[in-house]
Amino acid sequence: MCTSFRYTPKVAKAFGLEEKDIHPSDKCLVLTRNQKKMVPFGYKTNNLILNARQETLLEKPLFKDSIHCIVPAGSFYEWDAGKNKVEFFTHHILYFAGLLVDDHLVIITTSANSYVKNVHSRMPVILEKEDIDPWLKDISKTREILSKPGIALQTKQLQEPLF
């Protein structure tokens, strides 16, 4: 699951953003085929929908007319069983696969890879550089792109318990 991510100094500089954490309902940068824009993180129905499971999103009516987008980030957070915040990152900019639903961001998640699974069972789909253009421009590649394993990540245990 992805409920919070961070604009690190590298992301802030590359995209002209403020270095900060992004939480549900915050405005965040998305890149589409034709534009970059700030949109709210999460789509409001009865509940706030933050994530779409890659395994089932093609079956869900809510996502039928959504627009593919990417979300630049420097890191993302998950919470371990002890409710401690754990940061996952690389030394490069991460690009999450996302969907725009009525101009609201929903981040696509997948089963956690070996770097994340000891902390959480889900993680955002992180696009490799060669998949960014096809993700934005060729909807026929959706299933293929979403089925790729996640990239190598580093972790940092943060001393910020959830409660």
From TrEMBL:
<dbReference type="GO" id="GO:0003697">
    <property type="term" value="F:single-stranded DNA binding"/>
</dbReference>
<keyword id="KW-0238">DNA-binding</keyword>
<dbReference type="GO" id="GO:0016829">
    <property type="term" value="F:lyase activity"/>
</dbReference>
<dbReference type="GO" id="GO:0006508">
    <property type="term" value="P:proteolysis"/>
</dbReference>
<dbReference type="InterPro" id="IPR036590">
    <property type="entry name" value="SRAP-like"/>
</dbReference>
<dbReference type="GO" id="GO:0106300">
    <property type="term" value="P:protein-DNA covalent cross-linking repair"/>
</dbReference>
<dbReference type="Pfam" id="PF02586">
    <property type="entry name" value="SRAP"/>
</dbReference>
<keyword id="KW-0456">Lyase</keyword>
<keyword id="KW-0190">Covalent protein-DNA linkage</keyword>
<keyword id="KW-0227">DNA damage</keyword>
<comment type="similarity">
    <text>Belongs to the SOS response-associated peptidase family.</text>
</comment>
<protein>
    <recommendedName>
        <fullName>Abasic site processing protein</fullName>
        <ecNumber>3.4.-.-</ecNumber>
    </recommendedName>
</protein>
<dbReference type="InterPro" id="IPR003738">
    <property type="entry name" value="SRAP"/>
</dbReference>
<dbReference type="GO" id="GO:0008233">
    <property type="term" value="F:peptidase activity"/>
</dbReference>
<keyword id="KW-0378">Hydrolase</keyword>
<keyword id="KW-0645">Protease</keyword>
